[in-house]
Amino acid sequence: MAKCIVCDKATTFGNNVSHSHRRSNKAQKANIRKVKAVVDGSAKKVDVCSRCLRSGKIERA
Hints:
Helices cover 8% and strands 46% of the residues. The relative contact order is 0.28. By secondary structure, the protein is mainly β.
């Protein structure tokens, strides 16, 4: 399962609720990107969510 290495964001679970209020399972996946980033001074491919990429919490290689 893909998970952001910066903020630990991953898949969350909930319910789809229809008009008649019947419920079914729903999985909401995080927007995870596999990017080359500088980790501990060297370039590595890591899983990062798009929000952490946009806010500059990780430096791209």
